[in-house]
Amino acid sequence: MKKLSHLLLFIIISTQLTAQSRGVKFYNPQDSIRYDELTLMLFNGYKVVSTKDGLKMQVVDSSLLKHNYSRDSLNKLRNNIPTYSFLTYNSNPSYTTLTQLHASDKKDTIQYLSFEGPSIDKLPIREILKCKKLKGLELVNTTVKKIPWLLNWSLFGLDSLQTIHIYNHQSKKALKFTKNDQVTKLVYRENPYAKAPKGLWKLKNLRELDLVRNDLRDAAVLKLNKFKKLKELNMSRNKIRIQDLTNSQIDNLENLILSFCDLDGIPATIKHFPSLKELQLAENDIKSENISSEMANLKELEILSFYKNNLTFLPAFLFELNQLEELDLYYNEIEIVPKEIGQLKQLERLYLANNRLFNIPDEIGQLTMLKELYLKHNRISYLPNTLCKLENITDFHVNDNYLQGFPDCILAFKKLRDLDISNNEIHSIPPELLDLHDLKLLWMRGITFEARNREEAESIRNTIEGLQKKGVKVSLDLE
């Protein structure tokens, strides 16, 4: 369990978590002091302190037991202070620690090492070289300045090492990497105080690079064009721009994740990644009019996510991405789905939930490969009959809309497993639901059942009971 720390000057404020703690980076000492003052006011002078009996809330400023500020106003003032949030880590408990490494007389059996603490500024090379079966190396909160060339594992019989994980790096100087032909995965996360690492491209066999939450501002320093085998790149929660990633074509990259990066558009330089199969752009501020038509050149793209952005319409060129299998448009401001949606013949998962849709075009019926269709939280009052053609649907969520009656097209979904029709103007369900033999979940919250006679009432009851007897989990409001 992590200890809760609280530093007045711009280092870290943590809250207790089971695996990680939340940290906050301040950009100047004054902001840190002000943040601490507002936090004390927010908790009426109380503060979490460490005692011999553990963590406790104690009054540290009795003058703040009563004040005239509301919680909302204090939170607003505190949220206006520029900060950068990150996580602080403990070492993996299943890994061998430095102390255990020193004491071990079977170093040649060790597969995973973890070194933790700012006192570690150099790697114990001689002892590491004895770990002939080493697969993973983890550095947590260290001040190591260099991954030395001696750890070019193939030269010293350490050719099994594949992954390096580095968290909360404390060195003020940029961590330097030297030539290595074995490592295939590097995770360099939660290092907002450290400068961007140097020489990453010297990891010649690197296939997966995770640079999440480092407060990186200049992606150009990474020299992505030198990564000849890189397949996956995750740069989420950094302040980078797509146009800074590269100025030349990168043919090898297949997965690119740029979530939470404050992006407001997709520039023409996206064309430099023609081999992309997955592009994740969740939780940005991308606007439809700021998406370059060069996106149409991503002919290999299979997964595209605009989850929680600011799209108001879907540019026509997006429908030229005819290899798409998943399109995530959750939480946007889209009002119309163009008829060109029917061009995405390979689409298996379409998420249009939480938008402003009034209807769905007939062309939706051309997506015969579709398995998951989420239309919930829109303004849809009817569904096109062409939906009946989607015989491969397994998950259909159309809850929180304005549907008038049970959509009969649902009965054509013979492979349906998960159905949500909650919070619509639906007052009855057909007994044919019993014929959907794969159905496992049926959500009908907010549905008020109405029957014109006893026969209809018994039909509804028998259908629900019959589904439950078949093992279907039926969720109802029983009030």
UniProtKB/TrEMBL annotation:
Residues 1-19 form the signal peptide. InterPro entries: Leu-rich_rpt, Leu-rich_rpt_typical-subtyp, LRR_dom_sf, LRR_R13L4/SHOC2-like, StomDev_PlantInt_Reg. It holds the Pfam family LRR_8. Keywords: Leucine-rich repeat, Repeat, Signal. It comes from the Bacteria. SUPFAM superfamilies: L domain-like. Transmembrane segments: none annotated. Residues 110-307 form the Disease resistance R13L4/SHOC-2-like LRR domain. This is Leucine-rich repeat domain-containing protein.
